[in-house]
Amino acid sequence: MDFPPRPELFDFHGVSMTHYFTDLWDRVQTFKARPDDILIATYPKAGTTWVSYILDLLYFGQTSPERLTSIPIYDRVPFLDLRDVFDKSGVEQAENLPTSPRIIKTHFPVQFIPKSFWEQNCKIVYVARNAKDNVVSYFHFDRMVVTEPDPGDWNSYLKRFMEGKVAFGSWYDHVNGWWKKKQTYSNLHYMFYEDMTEDCAKELDKLCSFLGLSPSLEEKKQILGEVQFDNMKYNNMVNYSTSLHANVKISPFMRKGKVGDWKNHFTVAQNEEFDEDYKRKMKDPTLHFRSEI
Ligand code: PPS
């Protein structure tokens, strides 16, 4: 298999992007959302796959269990922003999803979301993760995914993350932009990776209440078991071991799944510099992240 060369980053409407996420811009922007579509929006590596699997199980786990063992999660929940690399583009996959609802994933910052999602008042689930664990996870992901720019060494990567020079731009702008949107768009459920790690059952209940679903206790128990990190790690339909983009021998997609793994990566000096910069950028006292639990 010939892998394409790693892409370069460039400024796209004020956000660092690669051509994989801009080549089909017009097509993506004119995507026709349906009122019952559900959009999962995240900054990369915030828990997208975890929440995608939960939603997929909630909607289809009982009615089409064969999906779970035959279709990888990235085909069940297409990635709208992604152009075709080895197979269909995300937008084409989303258009052809036979399910109702269609569950669709995006990493776009809020200002890039195709307007039909807002016009149709679609339900949107946003997942955010603390910046330190997010950047560590993103670094390892960029090492192993050929469609990402070359991450270089950890120190330079961390600096670029702080400057927003990674695909999908600044983490700080992303989490703040979506948080602000919540004030004016009520069909947006904002979740935190750390809360899910601490008490997944509670987060599942809140999610169900947002979605208007009332699964039985038995069903909830089953879902909570399925989506535990260790179960997902060894489930080939959700661990990306079948993806042509990812070389899971370099770093597994389901890597650690922890809050606080950043402590194994940040030096004391990096941590101090990061914290100072963080304070300057994260001014909204209502948006609070936990980098340890
Ligand atoms: S992507 O590529 O943006 O869609 O990646 P994403 O799915 O958002 O994030 C991957 C990280 O989420 C962790 N993960 C989980 N953690 C805890 N529990 C469960 N069930 C779970 N599923 C996925 C995954 O391990 C990646 O984090 P790191 O820190 O790299 O392990």
Characterise the protein shown here.
The protein is 41% helix and 9% strand. The chain has one domain: Rossmann fold. The protein has 293 residues and is of the alpha/beta class. The longest helix has 14 residues, at 131-144. The strands form two sheets. A four-stranded parallel β-sheet has the order 4-3-5-6, sandwiched between helices.
Explain briefly what this protein structure is.
Helix content is about 40%, strand content about 10%. The chain has helices at about 25-30, 50-60, 65-70, 75, 90-95, 115-120, 130-145, 155-160, 170-180, 195-200, 200-210, 215-225, 230-235, 270-280; strands at about 10, 15, 40, 105, 125-130, 190. A hairpin with a 2-residue loop joins strand 1 (about 10) and strand 2 (about 15).
Map the helices and strands:
Layout: E1 10-12, E2 15-17, H1 25-29, E3 38-42, H2 48-60, H3 66-70, H4 73-76, H5 90-95, E4 103-106, H6 115-119, E5 123-128, H7 131-144, H8 154-162, H9 171-181, E6 188-192, H10 193-198, H11 200-211, H12 217-226, H13 229-233, H14 268-281
Parallel strand pairs: 3-4, 3-5, 5-6
Antiparallel strand pairs: 1-2
The structure holds 3'-phosphate-adenosine-5'-phosphate sulfate.
